[in-house]
Design brief:
heterodimer, A: mainly alpha, B: alpha/beta, Rossmann fold, 2 domains, four-stranded antiparallel β-sheet, binds adenosine-5'-diphosphate, binds magnesium ion
């Protein structure tokens, strides 16, 4: 099973690069924060913590992974292998989502969230969206500085509205804005059918875009220097 | 195995590879010989389906390269001129990972490592490998799935004579198994020794295409150079197939007056200079 193997090797690779260690440490830190805040703030704090780190870590880590791969010319190896871009993407997205989910389970439980399954579904969807954004940007650029520059607009259009939405400061029609739907779920709220539909449409578009970007990266041969 | 007709390709607006036509039969070692920057790697990238924006036709294993699917790569092994391994993983882990990408059964990793003398370094991280070790590792990576067509980009560059010899023997062994091998090089000795046929490539064009033997013969026979002492040292030369017409040489032999006598066969480098007006470096 090629997809299964890609997924398992991604996990091994991420473990070797210390992703699991890093998230274990961060999760302990965040739990400490949750125990420090007053009881009434707990759920909202947990939602912000989950959304702004485990759920969105894919944006940065995907950038790091792809830049590292480019510097080692492994995209060339994939280009001449039977791997389909979609298999590569699904393996990356699901392996990073696994880390997001593990951290989110701990944080949501520590905060005593009621709808754990909705929180986790929201985390998984957010993680997929951010990882796909990470893939699309990382395939286009060739240095860490460029990558950081490009993530700024994504952060502004994603985190800003989502946090405002959590505190219900946004107008009603913005509840269909995809990241707001995600934030609603991460904070344990049941999303509307329309909201789910819009998020799914965004995911589909991001998957198709990232497939094209990955294919293009594989056949362009220039390596990058980190 | 490979059929190229009227192939043109360019990275920019200016034409680069222009109007190439040639074929490579199954079981043949075919070499692209030319100075660096001639377009050898570019041509190879077209043939392995990495550059699809070409004009003309390039058929590999019955498939037009621009229409290749991912399956195309089950039967093609590529050794790039640079390492394509995960530096943080060990050599064995890398080979296990790349093996797992193929549907067909792959070759035993330990056996391959042993063939290139890396059997004691399999558990080292690739980051700790020397340049020569990396090239050997990348070479066996191309062999993992026992492909029908092997594309090797400068396989022996940067290797010491022993390892270069070993790699050349492995290339010949693959041919003996009926595999087709495409080889780029700017080393004319390797080309002369390994290739059944070579194409001279300069500025994106094929200037000559034949077996090394025929190319060398086309230059004509070897020459004989001899020296003798007669009020100082003199030397003269004569084509080997007309020695009996050389009265001076006959007289020198009759009188046992020769100081030295050498024959020099033209090599592929001389032929390359003759045909293209350029050196190989
Ligand atoms: N991705 C690329 N984009 C633009 N030009 C390129 C690219 N890759 C190679 N070239 C140019 O093509 C020329 C030939 O390169 P190459 O095929 O690698 O030659 P060789 O392998 O014969 O040394 C070089 O001048 C190089 O600068
Ligand atoms: Mg080259």
């Amino acid at each position: 099973m090629r997809l299964g193997s890609l997924f398992l090797w991604d996990i091994r690779f991420q473990a070797k690069h210390g992703f699991y260690f890093l998230y274990a440490v961060l999760t302990v830190l965040y739990v400490a924060v949750l125990f420090a805040v007053p009881e009434s703030w707990k759920e909202k704090t947990a939602a912000i913590l989950i959304f702004s780190d485990p759920a969105s870590m894919g944006l940065f880590f995907m950038g790091a992974i792809i830049l590292l791969e480019k510097s080692q010319h492994t995209p060339c190896a994939f280009a001449v292998s039977p791997v389909c871009p979609m298999e590569y993407i699904i393996a990356e997205v699901s392996s990073l989502s696994a880390i997001s989910l593990a951290a989110a389970v701990v944080l949501a439980s520590a905060a005593g969230a009621d709808n754990l399954h909705i929180v986790l579904l929201g985390t998984a969807i957010s993680s997929m969206i951010f990882t796909l954004f990470g893939i699309i940007i990382a395939t286009k650029i060739s240095s860490l500085n460029q990558f950081i520059l490009w993530t700024v607009p994504i952060e502004i259009v994603c985190f800003g509205p989502a946090i405002l939405h959590l505190f219900k400061i946004t107008p009603a029609w913005l509840r269909y804005y995809p990241v707001n739907v995600c934030m609603e779920m991460v904070s344990g709220g049941t999303p509307s059918a329309m909201g789910i539909l819009i998020v799914m449409a965004l995911l589909a578009i991001l998957f198709i875009l990232s497939k094209h970007c990955v294919l293009k990266m594989w056949s362009s041969t220039g390596g990058v220097k980190l | 195995m490979i059929q190229v007709s009227n192939l043109s390709f360019s990275y920019t607006r200016q034409p680069f590879i222009s109007d190439m036509s040639f074929f490579v039969s199954s079981g043949e070692i075919f070499g692209f010989l030319g100075p660096s920057g001639a377009g050898k790697s570019t041509l190879q990238k077209v043939l392995i389906g990495m550059l699809t924006a070409y004009q003309g036709s390039a058929m590999v294993n019955g498939i037009e390269c621009r229409h290749r699917t991912r399956r195309f790569y089950e039967d093609i092994g590529v050794d790039f001129e640079f390492s394509t391994m995960y530096e943080k993983l060990t050599a064995k882990e890398n080979l296990q990972f790349f093996s797992s990408l193929y549907e067909k059964k792959t070759r035993p990793i330990d056996e391959l490592l042993e063939m290139v003398g890396l059997e004691h370094d399999g558990d080292k991280r690739v980051a700790d490998y020397s340049k020569g070790m990396k090239s050997r590792l990348n070479f066996i990576k191309a062999l993992l799935h026992d492909p029908l067509l092997l594309c090797l980009d400068e396989p022996t560059s940067g290797l010491d004579p022993t390892n270069s010899r070993m790699m050349k023997n492995m290339i010949l062994a693959e041919r003996a198994k009926g595999k087709t091998i495409l080889l780029t090089t700017h080393n004319m000795q390797d080309a002369a020794e390994l290739c059944d046929r070579v194409a001279f490539i300069v500025n994106g064009k094929i200037c000559a295409l034949d077996s090394p033997h025929n190319l060398i013969m086309s230059k004509g026979a070897a020459t004989v150079t001899y020296t003798w002492i007669d009020n100082g040292e003199h030397s003269a030369s004569c084509p080997i197939d007309r020695l009996s017409d050389d009265e001076q040489l006959k007289r020198l032999i009759a009188n046992n007056c020769l100081q030295s006598i050498h024959s020099s066969e033209p090599n592929l480098n001389d032929i390359f200079m003759d045909i293209t007006g350029r050196t190989l470096l």
